[in-house]
């Protein structure tokens, strides 16, 4: 009986091919939208999360408790070597990256007939070895261009403003921790871009050893950035780090606490998922409800005959429900296949938002981080699964009224229709 009901339901979908095709098309379009747009959002947010918890913020940060407010050169973390060793001993820690930041004036150190123009810059001292690994601030810098031993790397924007080139001398003027003016010449070893907006636009990057000597900061740093085994475990890692005796009174922050504005943007992703899931609900409900109602009223005579020869009302209900579910599943299958194909193609080529708008800009800076305009969609099975569940549930709900109407028909009156 169930097999015959399924065959009848399938056959009935072919009675009005145009109406069935329109319903299937609406559902497929909704599912395609869900898969593609949510995959784009997943790719965008994954890149944003990787950028935020990568070069700039890490998973946990340590500062002097007043440093983020004042950014003064004399607000530093002491006992750097001991603190670093204790943090590295924690089982979940992957990398520890101490950093020095201070404002400075820079100008070309090459001999010229006219005085060289000076520009404000940010002197950045880094642990070159750890920062040149994947995810570090210097990951995009070639090995033979890494700073150290009196050489520096200059941000691309700053280098363009001053007309600087690799191999030239750079004059740096600043103030050490004791308030005395300091100056020196450094050799430019490379020009750096990347995802840290501060480095790209104003950065003069040197080894933390050179920066410490220049600013009279032996065994000290303004910031220590820690990467753990998982960004989701940042809170527990921060608690372990805060318990280190040398860090008593220091500010220990998780990446979520350090950049709450960007975290709010990341947390909005779940709402985007729900919005596009609602699109599938609407598309499925409109297509299936209309098809089920029209099909039911057109087949009143047929249902009356089935009831007259002994078919139970439950079978009529099941027949209408099965038709609706089949209609929904076919639409979901088509939409999922097309959406997945588009996502798999664009996941390799990327989608350049700037190019679509006619702009040549590669990225946008926000809160000190550069986010790329090129999005690489990420296909996640849950996007297909959510659409499948949504359409199946909508199919049943949308066809309940037509099914119950068919089941309540009086055989004699229905056969006269």
Structure notes:
The protein has 417 residues and is an alpha+beta fold. The chain has 17 helices and 13 strands. The strands form 3 sheets. Strands 2-3-7-4-6-5 form a 6-stranded mixed barrel. A two-stranded antiparallel ribbon has the order 10-13. Strand 11 (363-366) and strand 12 form a beta hairpin. Helix 1 crosses helix 14 (313-349), helix 2 packs across helix 14 and helix 12 packs antiparallel against helix 14 (313-349). The two termini are 26 Å apart. The mean pLDDT is 79.
Which key terms come to mind for this protein?
417 residues, alpha+beta, 6-stranded mixed β-barrel, two-stranded antiparallel sheet, 53% helix, 19% strand
In short:
The protein is of the alpha+beta class and 417 residues long. The protein has 17 helices and 13 strands. It folds into 2 domains: 2-52 and 266-416, no CATH class; 58-257, no CATH class.
The total domain count is: 2
Number of helices: 17
Which structural class fits the helix and strand makeup? alpha+beta
**How many strands appear in the DSSP assignment?**
13
Low-confidence stretches: none
Q: Name the helix and strand elements from N-terminus to C-terminus, one letter apiece.
A: HHEHHEEHEHEEHEHEHEHHHHHEHEEEHH
Provide the spatial order of strands within the biggest beta sheet. 2-3-7-4-6-5
Shape descriptor: elongated
């Amino acid at each position: 009986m169930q097999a015959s009901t399924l065959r009848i339901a399938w056959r009935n979908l072919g009675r009005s091919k145009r109406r069935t095709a329109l319903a299937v098309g609406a559902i497929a379009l909704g599912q395609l939208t869900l898969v593609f747009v949510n995959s784009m959002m997943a790719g965008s947010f994954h890149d944003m999360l990787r950028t935020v918890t990568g070069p700039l913020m890490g998973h946990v940060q340590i500062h002097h408790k007043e440093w983020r407010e004042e950014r003064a050169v004399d607000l530093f973390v002491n006992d750097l070597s001991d603190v670093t060793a204790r943090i590295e001993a924690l089982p979940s820690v992957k990398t520890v990256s101490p950093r020095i930041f201070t404002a400075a004036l820079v100008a070309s150190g090459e001999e010229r007939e006219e005085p060289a123009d000076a520009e404000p810059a940010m002197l950045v001292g880094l642990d070159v070895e750890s920062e040149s690994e994947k995810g570090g601030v210097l990951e995009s810098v070639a090995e033979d261009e890494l700073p150290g031993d009196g050489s520096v790397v200059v941000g691309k924007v700053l280098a363009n403003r001053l007309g600087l080139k690799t191999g030239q001398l750079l004059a740096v003027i600043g103030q050490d921790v004791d308030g005395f003016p300091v100056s020196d010449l450094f050799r430019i070893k490379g020009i750096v871009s990347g995802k840290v907006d501060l480095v790209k636009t104003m950065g003069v990057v040197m080894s933390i050893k050179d920066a410490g000597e220049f600013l009279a900061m032996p065994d000290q740093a303004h910031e220590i950035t820690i990467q753990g085994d998982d960004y989701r475990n940042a809170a527990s890692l921060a608690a372990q780090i805060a318990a280190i005796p040398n860090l008593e009174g220091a500010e220990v922050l998780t990446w979520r606490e350090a950049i709450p504005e960007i975290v709010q943007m990341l947390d909005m992703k779940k709402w985007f998922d729900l919005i596009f899931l609602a699109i599938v609900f609407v598309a499925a409900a409109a297509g299936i409800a209309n098809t089920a109602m029209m099909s039911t009223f057109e087949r009143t005579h047929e249902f009356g005959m089935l009831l007259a020869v002994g078919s139970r009302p439950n079978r009529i209900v099941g027949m209408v429900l099965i038709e609706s579910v089949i209609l929904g599943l076919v639409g979901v299958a088509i939409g999922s296949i097309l959406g997945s194909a588009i996502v798999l193609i664009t996941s390799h080529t990327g989608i350049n938002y700037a190019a679509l708008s006619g702009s040549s800009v590669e990225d946008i800076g926000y809160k000190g981080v550069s986010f790329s305009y090129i999005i690489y969609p990420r296909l996640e099975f849950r996007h297909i699964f959510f659409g499948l569940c949504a359409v199946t549930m909508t199919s049943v709900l949308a066809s309940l009224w037509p099914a119950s109407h068919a089941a309540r028909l009086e055989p004699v009156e229905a056969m006269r229709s």
